[in-house]
Amino acid sequence: MAILTRTDHGAVAHLTMNAPERLNALSDAMLAALRDEFARLTEQKDTRAVVLSGAGKAFCAGHDLKEMTMGRQAEDGGRAYFKDLFDRCAAVMLAIRALPQPVIAAPHGIATAAGCQLVASCDLAIAATGTRFGVNGVNIGLFCSTPMVALSRNVPRKAAFEMLTTGAFIDTDRAVELGLINRAVPPERLEAEALALAETIAGKLGAAVRIGKEAFYAQLEMPLDAAYAHTGAVMVENMLWRDTAEGIDAFIQKRPPDWDQ
To answer: Does Lipoprotein appear among the keywords (predicted)?
Structure first.
C-alpha cells in the first residue's frame, strides 16, 4: 500500500497520507513521498489546487519518534541524522510554499508538532470539528523549534509562544480564532468541503492564481513601499495577458470568459 495516495478530481489533486497505524507520522518514507509528489505537481499546470489529508483517525502526529530514537545509534549520537531529518522536513514545508497551486490542509483527529507545522505551512485549512492542534514537543523535552517557524507566521506571537511553552492543545474554535485554520466543518463533511474550496479555486484563471500565490508570499517579507512596487509590477504583467483582457471583457459583457489557460 502506498504511503501517500493521490486521487484527481478534475483540476484538483487530493493527496492522502496513508500510514494510519503510525498516525501518518512524518517518517523518512512519508517525507520522501511528499517531496516527490510536490515536485511532480510543480510541473503539472493542469492541476490547479491540492487537498492534503490523512488516513485513519488522525491527520498527522508529527515526526516519527521511533525512527528518531533509532538515529541515536550512530557514532555521533544522531547529530548528522537529526540535521538531515529537519533539513528534509523544512524542504517539504518550503515546497508547499513554492508550489504554483494553492494547498488546502484538511486535518482531523490530531495535528501535532510537525503535523501542526504541516497545517500551518499549507495555504488554507479546513478542519473537522473536534480536531486538536498542538506543538507539544516540550512535553517530552523537545521544544518544537522548527514547527515554531510556520506556527508563528500564522498565529499571534503570544498565542504561539504559549502553545510552544505549555504543550497545550487547542480546539478548532480556538484555531479559527487564531487564524491557524480557515474554518471547521462536521467530520462527515470534511472531504466534500475541502474539495469544494479547491474546485472553486481551480475554476479561476490558473495563471493568475499561480502568480498571485507567489506574489502573496513575496510581499509579506517586504517593507510596505517595496511590497506595493513589487505587486504593482505583477499586476502590470497580469493585465497584459490575453486571458485577463478576455476576463474583463466577459465581465463587462456579462458572459462566461473564454480562457486559454
So the answer is: no
Q: What stretches in the chain show pLDDT beneath 50?
A: none
**DSSP states along 176-212:** HHHTSSSEEE-GGGHHHHHHHHHHHHHTS-HHHHHHH
Residue 72: other Cβ atoms inside 10 A: 12
For 57-74, the pLDDT digits (tens) are 999 999 999 999 999 999
**86 lies in a domain?**
yes
The answer to whether residue 77 is domain-embedded is yes
Range of the domain at 122: 4-202
- Give dist(CA 54, CA 118) in Å, integer: 11
Question: For residue 7, what is the enclosing H or E element?
Answer: strand 4-9
CATH number where 165 lies: 3.90.226.10
CATH of the domain at 248: 1.10.12.10
In this structure, the answer to whether residues 57 and 94 fall within a common structural domain is: yes
Predicted TM-score (pTM) of this structure: 0.95
- In angstroms, the CA 92 to CA 35 distance is 6
